[in-house]
Design a protein that fits this description.
It is a single chain. With 155 residues, this protein is mainly α. About 4% of the residues have low confidence.
Length: 155
């Protein structure tokens, strides 16, 4: 029956929520570590470090998701879809970078040779209230600009 299918779906959702609740502390710890330390790393190194952290957390008795994902832990589907509409690439690495950029307390340094992150940040800020980029400390510098090295050392 149709209600039998709903019962199974609700039972599966209940089990998932219980598992997420049990893993909340460990996943939050991993998410904090990702935001603090993995931003400048490439995708492969980031994955390797997360695997090491998952193993270390489990060896200390913390419950963590074996398939830990920063976008699952700190992201939400609506925001992730908005980012894609604003021009963020759909690959998991770009999505993780988006989570890191929007969750960190400091201004992130984005090495962006293709200009994708620049376009996404500008579009995201524009969509959140006009020209909020002005006066918020949003800098966009090119490596070949005269003051680039000095600005980098100041930030």
């Amino acid at each position: 029956t149709q209600l039998g299918g709903e019962r199974q779906r609700w039972a599966a959702m209940n089990a998932k929520l219980r598992r997420d609740h049990a893993q909340l502390v460990g996943n939050t710890l991993l998410a904090a570590g990702c935001i603090a330390y993995t931003g400048p790393l490439g995708a492969d190194l980031r994955k390797a470090i997360i695997r090491v952290w998952v193993a270390a957390a489990r060896s200390m008795g913390l419950q963590v998701n074996a398939d830990f994902s920063l976008q699952y832990t700190l992201g939400n589907d609506v925001t992730l879809r908005e980012w894609k509409l604003q021009g963020l690439a759909a690959d998991p690495f770009s999505t993780e970078n988006g989570v890191i950029v929007t969750r960190c307390n400091r201004w992130p340094l984005m090495v962006d040779p293709q200009g994708q992150a620049n376009k996404w940040v500008r579009k995201m800020e524009e969509d959140q209230g006009g020209s909020r980029c002005q006066g918020r400390g949003l800098w966009s510098e090119q490596v070949y600009q005269r003051q680039w090295a000095r600005l980098l050392s100041v930030t």
